[in-house]
Amino acid sequence: MEQIGRYYNSILNVCAGLLGKMGGRPWILNNRLSADFYVGLDVGGEKKARVACYTFFDEFGNCVGEDWRPQRAEEIDPPELKRTIVNAIRSHREHIDSLVIHRDGEFTGKELQGIQLVQSELVEDGTMPKGSRIVCVNVKKAVPYRLYEIQKEQKNGCRVGSCIILDDHSGILATSGAPLLKQGTAQPMLIELVPPFDKADIKMMMKDLYYLSFMHWGSILLKMKLPATLRYADALTHGSISLF
Prior knowledge:
The chain is α+β, with helices and mostly antiparallel strands. The chain has a domain at 28-144 and 191-238: Ribonuclease H-like superfamily/Ribonuclease H (Nucleotidyltransferase, domain 5). It is 30% helix and 27% strand. The protein contains 5 helices and 10 strands. It has helices at 2-21, 78-92, 109-124, 202-212, 228-238; strands spanning 37-46, 49-58, 63-71, 98-104, 133-140, 148-151, 154-157, 163-167, 170-173, 189-193. The chain has an 8-stranded mixed sheet, sandwiched between helices. The protein starts with a helix and ends in a 6-residue tail after the last helix. 34% of the residues are buried.
């Protein structure tokens, strides 16, 4: 029994990983997310070997694909960004009404130009209706903010899922915390809606990010800090994860 207890967590995690490799899902989201299609975007690697990584998710948080492209710089060339995202959407959906794009860090001016090209192309070919919604979200994980709960003059670390709305375009979200975090204080993320693709409820966008942070099946007992859209994209830039 002692041996079983010692390896219990490892056995659970290995079983979850094997189930994922076979195409199974230990859990799924009970309700759909707020948009029809999600894209995770990250750029990483060394100066001479940069890569742009994209992951694609449906409205129930299922990963439907990924792509990566060599990069010469940190920001992505607009026509390349347009081509990659448009091809992915056409491959998986005939029609969408809404699209949300998560960027690890911050969108650049050129990347926003690329999103404008995505919108024009999808509206022109009828994949998205005119006046449809595209939302761009900066997800900044290296920020100095901390969230606390104060009860009877006692300050404790925040609970998982805690958030603060800063204004109509930004908020702080803790996807980890008590009771999952046993030691230390959760390091939250700064979430920002990016003009001109900012026509969304910041609280709803943070809710989507929180739900997506549960959508990795490598561990039963622990969860990710990043949403799956960016956890996978970040891992792909370092070559450290298999999505299927």
